[in-house]
Each structure stands twice: as C-alpha cells, then as structure tokens.
Design brief:
With 375 residues, the protein is α/β, with parallel strands linked by helices. The chain folds into 2 domains: 182 residues, no CATH class; 130 residues, no CATH class. It is built from 14 helices and 8 strands. Strand 4 and strand 5 form a beta hairpin. Helix 7 crosses helix 8 and helix 8 runs antiparallel to helix 10.
C-alpha cells in the first residue's frame, strides 16, 4: 500500500526561474568606496551537499510552464483541458549514491569476461563484499549491467579490428567463450566479430542470429553458449523489456493514486504513428496537470528500469532522449528503478529514485522468473 502522499506549497507568483535562480549582485555604493576583498568560497558541509541532479534548468522550466498557453499546443497535449490544469506540488524523497561508491563497488562487481547472469554463489560473494557500503545488492547488480554495457561499447572497435584473428582462432578450435574472455568483450559480440571475419555483411549476421538453424552445427552450439553467457548483447532481450514495462505500469499507478492526470506513451505512440507515420516524441508519462516535484515544474516523466550510473555511454544516450522531450515540452524528470549516482546530471531533467513507489508487482514478476541466477 502507498503511504499518504506528502505535498509542499509552492507559489505561482512571478517568474519561477527568477525566484529559483535570482543572482544577488553587489551594489556600487555612492562615494566610490574601496572594493571589498572577495571572500574565499567555503566547501559545502555534509549537511549542504550540492545536488545538481535535483535542480531544474531555467529555460526548460519556463518552457514547461508555458506549455498550457502554447498555440498550437505541444505534441500530444490536448488543446482544451477540462477541468483546467491544476497545480500539484509533490514532495519526492530521493537518496543518491556517492560517486566514490560507484567506483569502489564497480571494481567488485565487474570481472574480465563476465557478462552473463551470475550464480547465487557469486551474488552472495558480492553481497558480502559490499556489506559496509551505502548501496544495495540490487543497485550493485544493476551498476554491473551499466559497466558491462560501457565495456561492450568500448570493446566493439577492438573486436572489429581483430575480426580476422578471431576467425582464425575460432576455426582452429578455440571456443567463443575463451575468446570473449581473452578480449574482455561480450560473447555474442565476439561471435558477431567472428562472422564479420568471414566476410559476412551486418544484415546477414543479424538475420542469421535471429534464425541460428541456418548455421553449421558447431556454430549453433557456440552461439547458444554465447547467448547463455551474455546478458549485455544477447539477441533476446524480452525479459528485460517486460520488466521495464511492469515498472512503467507501477509509475503510472502511483500518479493515478496521487490523482494527477497524464497521458501514457502508448496513447502518444498511436497518435503520432497516425499523424506523422512514426513515433516522434513519446515520454512514458506526459503530464496534463501542472506538477511541481520538489518545487521544480515537470511536464513529463520517464521511467528507467536500471541504476543511473554516471558513465559516458548511458549518460550520453539518456541526454539525447531527454533533449527531444525538453525541446517539445520543457522540464521533466527521470525515475530510476535502482537509484542513481549523485554526480549524474541531465540537462532538462531532475533525477528521482523509486523510493515512494509500490514495487510489489515488479518483485512478483522477478520471483516468477527466478531460476538460480541474477543479473
């Protein structure tokens, strides 16, 4: 069950950006007195740590506030909202993981060549090693996924440069898993590189891996081993996608519970395919009410069923998505299922964790699919 939502009061008077980011300028006193010596800036104390992830972007905020008066309205926002948009101040308690903890735990959870699901014994080992860190085992395992994705991106070029060498080693009897460990790369990507070394085009590789029976018996066996040992670049990502959809449903249920109006991604997708022929801009929730989360006006919410690690690849990928939403609607928010690193900053989106959400449906989903391994 949800606890009663906590609300905070925010004023509508004046410019929001001016109110939040008013910069005090020193006045020139009459008489031309001496300039005061600039005081050294004190480092924030533990009680006043900078929280860039919680701050709105002034320009994006103004765009979010203006969206109800915009003509024509932004894509997907009804021209006539009845009753009119209501201001909904919402307090969302969020705790971020320190950057140094991301680094220390990352060194514990990641091993060369280890890209697949983890057996219970390895998970227990990780749990024991991070026991004194301010991070849960679920967050640590999700961080592992982000770090492995980052390694996958960085190892791609190295695999392609060594495609011929990989092919030769493979054809001389070396298996795909030892090769993947040798290059510290995801096994499925390693197998793709072997096929590239044979001169196969990208489309042929893609279509063949969708239907592995087209390959030789040995190739089928090696590809099956690669798929089993690879959670990062596996061809079948259906379970991950389904879990993400369950998390989106939970987020929508929470906003329903708070009596906040919104439109779901599916509705926006249907409309845009009809009018534009494709999906253009489809956040998980497009807010119809004037929602202020921790004082920041938000026009949209997007759900991420993973840990928000401060790493180049996921940060760049998410920022690109956020930019599309901000250009259309203004300021929004990202809700990370497993929390995020405190140094992570996305322009135009405040960051939230899943603390206020009832995650029971997601727990039940994972229990049904548990088979002695973990991500």
């Amino acid at each position: 069950m949800h606890s009663a939502p906590q609300f905070i009061h925010t004023s509508r008077e004046g410019s929001w950006a001016a109110g939040r980011w008013l910069i005090a300028l020193s006045e020139n006193k009459e008489g031309g007195g001496r300039r005061r010596r600039r005081r050294s800036r004190k480092k924030p104390t533990n009680g006043a740590k900078p929280r860039p992830w919680s701050e709105g972007d002034p320009e994006a905020v103004e765009r979010a506030l203006a969206r109800f008066k915009q003509s024509p309205p932004p894509m997907g926002l009804p021209a006539n909202i009845d009753p009119p948009p209501e201001e909904k101040p919402l307090h969302w308690l969020t705790n971020a993981v320190p950057k140094k903890i991301q680094k220390q735990v990352g060194e514990i959870v990641c091993r060369p060549g280890e890209f697949g699901f983890l057996p219970n014994q390895r998970v227990d080992e990780i749990r024991s090693e991070i026991d004194d860190f301010p991070i849960t085992i679920e967050q640590a395992l999700s961080l592992r996924g982000a770090l492995n994705q980052e390694k996958s991106v960085h190892s791609h070029g190295r695999l392609m440069r060594n495609a011929n060498q990989l092919r030769r080693r493979y054809e001389n009897g070396e298996g795909v898993l030892p090769l993947a460990k040798r290059f510290d790369a995801p096994p499925v990507n390693t197998f793709r590189a072997i096929l590239t070394g044979r001169g196969w085009a990208k489309n042929r590789i893609k279509e063949t891996l969708k239907n592995p029976t087209r390959m030789s018996e040995r190739d089928q066996q090696e590809f099956a081993k690669a798929e089993e040992a690879d959670k990062v670049s596996s061809v079948n990502q259906s379970e991950t996608q389904t879990a993400a959809e369950v998390f989106e449903d939970i987020l929508c249920a929470h906003f329903d519970f708070l009596d906040i109006r919104f439109r779901r991604q599916e509705e926006l997708l249907r409309e845009q395919k009809k009018s534009e022929g494709r999906a253009v801009v489809t956040p998980d929730l497009l807010l119809i009410d004037d929602v202020r989360i921790n004082g920041v006006p938000c026009a949209w919410i997007d759900a991420k069923h993973f840990f928000g690690a401060d790493l180049r690849f996921p940060r760049k990928k998410t920022q690109k998505q956020v930019d599309r939403y901000v250009n259309e609607y203004g300021q929004g928010a990202i809700v990370y299922r497993h929390g995020f690193t405190e140094s992570l900053k996305l322009n135009g989106a405040i960051l939230l964790d899943a603390s206020p959400l009832d995650l029971t449906p997601l727990d039940e989903f994972h229990q049904k699919r548990a088979g002695g391994h973990h991500s």
